[in-house]
Amino acid sequence: MQFDPHDHPHPSRRVAIYARRGMVATSQPLAAQAGLDMLRRGGNAVDAAIATAIALTVVEPTSNGIGGDAFSLVWSGGRLHGLNASGPAPRRLTIAELESRGIRDKMPEVGFAPVTVPGAPAAWAELSKRFGRLSFAALFEPAIELAQAGYPVSPVTGRAWEAAYRRYERELTGPEFSAWFSTFAPEGRAPRVGEIWRSPDHAETLRKIAESGAEAFYRGELAERIDRFSREYGGFIRLEDLAAFRPEWVDPIHVDYRGYDVWEIPPNGHGLVALMALNLLKCFDLSGRSPADRYHIEIEAIKLAFADGRHYIADPRFMSARVEDLLSEGYAEERRRLIGESAALPNPGRPQAGGTVYLCAADGEGNMVSYIQSNYQGFGSGLVVPGTGIALHNRGANFSLDSAHVNALAPGKRPYHTIIPGFLTKAGQAVGPFGVMGAFMQPQGHVQVLVNMIDLRLNPQAALDAPRWQWLEGRKVAAEYGIPPHVLESLSRRGHEMAWSADTGSFGRGQIIWRLDNGVLVGGTEPRADGQVAAW
């Protein structure tokens, strides 16, 4: 595709970056530079992606960490590979056990109850083993240096850190949370923007993971420390839970959207929601409509897709509907007929049987990576394993405590997962990776940036700069201030409960790399973050 050269709606924001030999795009410049360093050392896109991901656990701990999960899509050898590195619930974590502790209606967001087995370190090792060129230990060097010597906290990360500290100061009162404060608020407060933050414990943990190929985290010293910490405070995760974990290679799922194949990781991730929405949208002419008309159709499609997603998506072993049925053209046509002139409140259909970081990387040899890892909400569970810098995520908060629900908590089961890497191909060739982090905003962000690029022909940077909307629940939709008042008024007349939101962080943070027909890479990075496209 040739993008419209005059397609940038916000001239004061960033411009698209063009390069030939390699590119890394993510939400923090120091992490992007860590990845670019691997390319300059002779590494490939996978090496760059892993180094960037490891560095992000240091420079953006407000969104991801060593104790989080990860997913990846890798284009290598002329085909797309999917990796699901999300961990299951510990064997001791059951609905009955939580009920015995007075937890009945909703999964907690902090403490040991929402802690599932972390998958990120296993993802780094697995990706490196299968596709990497540099030594595994080399990929850790930038992150270890950043953790040991310290780095200046960047603006968006600093604001998120301060917000998390204020919340945790109120809510985290037990002794099990003390290591979070000594690690992430050593001066009795969140580090300020521009202030140097160091974490020697984090550096030492990364050294152990690097030297052992991640074995220390799952079957060695670090696993034993996680086990002891959990036992001391009545937690559920144990050494055997960690030792049993292996990431899973999966077949990516896709739909055709106007001649492009859009790829996502299959459930338990909710990339399926984005694909279902695109399946509904592909029969509408979006480029020829007014912004209000276009937003209305997109919002209705997202609501229909989420109605099905929240009803059906779970660990695939427990799903009551098949992915291929939810993505079938017959089912899409049935659901598409529900999109009318007014805002609706859709229910799930019945198909016939038949707080996260995102990064992307590409090299000059044709390899491309779409990668995402997360604590789920901010710093995660509020628990840091003492002396390690390992912040345990709270992904289990997504489980339902309704035993009849498809996503009900069960030992060894993976929860409904919100982090989703995306990828585009056309005619069997790689176009490039894309992603928009942000919990339940992620499928909505995927749909909006793809419509911007494919329907409206915006370049990757302009597609990310464009103002976004976010469906919240019912008929409630939040809108960024860049959407004009008359557009909101038109949507309100259709029954949407529109409201502007100044919380730019809630609209997701994306990265895109697009390969042109001549092999040139075009990159865009999120203006709502501290991001950078590092290019070579």
Automatic annotation (TrEMBL):
EC number: 2.3.2.2
Keyword terms of this UniProt record: Acyltransferase, Transferase
SUPFAM superfamilies: N-terminal nucleophile aminohydrolases (Ntn hydrolases) (SSF56235)
PANTHER family per UniProt: GAMMA-GLUTAMYLTRANSPEPTIDASE (AFU_ORTHOLOGUE AFUA_4G13580)
Acyltransferase listed as a keyword: yes
Name of the molecule in the record: Gamma-glutamyltransferase
Enzyme superclass (EC): transferase
Origin superkingdom: Bacteria
A Gene Ontology molecular function term of the record: leukotriene C4 gamma-glutamyl transferase activity
Organism: Kyrpidia tusciae (strain DSM 2912 / NBRC 15312 / T2)
